[in-house]
Amino acid sequence: MACSSGSGAKMSSPNVSTSTMAVTPGAVDQKTSPVLFEIYGEIWNVQARLGQGVSASVYRVSSGRASTAAVKEFQADTQGGDYGFLKERSVLESIQGHKKIVTLYGVFTNHNPFGVATRCLLLELLDVNVSDLLVRASNQGHSMWLIQHCARDVLEALSFLHREGYVHADLKPRNVLWSADDECFKLIDFGLSYREGHQDVKYIQTDGYRAPEAELQNSLAQAGLGGDSGCTTAVDLWSLGIVLLEMFSGTKLKEIVKSQEWKDNSFAIVDHIFSSNALVYPAIPVYHLRDLIKSMLHNDPKLRSTADVALVDPFFSIPFAPHIEDLVLLPTPVLRLLNVIDDSHLYNEDEYEDIVEDMKEECQKYGTVVSLLIPKENPGKGQVFVEYANAGDSKEAQRLLTGRTFDGKFVVATFYPLSAYKRGYLYQTVHYNLNKLYSGSPRS
């Protein structure tokens, strides 16, 4: 990318490898994974295996039209029942249409070269999950903006799900994923879900996110004893409370939640976690978040907040702006380049127009550019905003531009909320630490 200023500076590749904060799924194991799926008469190539569980594997796939999606392939059921596939398909088909719940595109049967037929779901492809975000938190916790964003999105999904009569029954960080194109968190994995009052799953929820009543029911089922401990939609609120507490603290709390101390006085532990971070966060929002989490963690499910009540909590009335580290973690169709344009380049009209054209030419190498903006005044002065046709192009550009140098300076490439960009709401340039951005620590 040539700069039109008299300095003749050019963007160059980095001398050392730097992290782009992008999700890097494991490579496909050719011995155990399919290399392609035929879906509705079209060939989709497997790009990577995104996850593998006891009963199913998930793959990122692309078609000849460059479309991308996810395929959840269930292991062949030797009994011919296909229970896991049929159950998840049934739930997903019943709850489609909500923005905060993963979209089911269709279902199909895959016939592999060995003559084995497997049942598959074709799903919306999502991005980073909350579990990965926790790993990148480096035990320091996430910003209030990110916590609030995640909490609101999940609560809206739960509110819809619960109104439809369903319990998710396996809410955990790995089942909450970011959608780059919709700029929101979405719920996935409904394999343990059931209609409230008609539980057809013996063991629900994951250890560390399991409500007390679900713990009791699972223990009874394991002992071969009957009984219904009343696992209602309240179990989902308990799980969300733990997820939000982990996002605030930046640490996994499984061992703490299983301890006798937690069982004796969980609220005292919540208070201690919040007091330990008192200097990091502003006081009033912290108190509201603490009280919101406590409302979800009553041992008595009847005392727990519902999703609808939680959504009108005072915590959601406080406006937050994302930290620059948040914008590195969460992909969107808009890319923001920092540390590229000096003020001196902005006030010579010919020089400015040349810079804009050079930036467009460079950025179009990575995907279709819808618009490009370089503000001459604050807010956003000297920042380069590039709107791509989709988040896939934006992520590719972020991956390839991060760590390159321009006029001797490292380029910082973050994502930017499309909704804010469309409204013309541009954040002021903020202080950032390159080492922390590239190492995965989310706070400066």
TrEMBL record:
InterPro entries: Kinase-like_dom_sf (IPR011009), Nucleotide-bd_a/b_plait_sf (IPR012677), Prot_kinase_dom (IPR000719), Protein_kinase_ATP_BS (IPR017441), RBD_domain_sf (IPR035979), RRM_dom (IPR000504), UHMK1 (IPR034372), UHMK1_RRM (IPR034371). Its main location: nucleus. SMART domains: RRM, S_TKc. Pfam families: Pkinase (PF00069), RRM_1 (PF00076). Transmembrane segments: none annotated. One of its GO terms (molecular function) is ATP binding. PROSITE patterns: PROTEIN_KINASE_ATP, PROTEIN_KINASE_DOM, RRM. Its EC number is 2.7.11.1. It is found in: Nucleus. One of its GO terms (cellular component) is nucleus. It catalyses: L-threonyl-[protein] + ATP = O-phospho-L-threonyl-[protein] + ADP + H(+); L-seryl-[protein] + ATP = O-phospho-L-seryl-[protein] + ADP + H(+). GO terms for biological process: positive regulation of translational initiation; regulation of protein export from nucleus. The keyword ATP-binding applies. Residues 333-411 form the RRM domain. CDD domains: RRM_UHMK1. Keywords: ATP-binding, Kinase, Nucleotide-binding, Nucleus, RNA-binding, Serine/threonine-protein kinase, Transferase. Upon serum stimulation, phosphorylates CDKN1B/p27Kip1, thus controlling CDKN1B subcellular location and cell cycle progression in G1 phase. May be involved in trafficking and/or processing of RNA. This is Serine/threonine-protein kinase Kist. It comes from Triplophysa rosa.
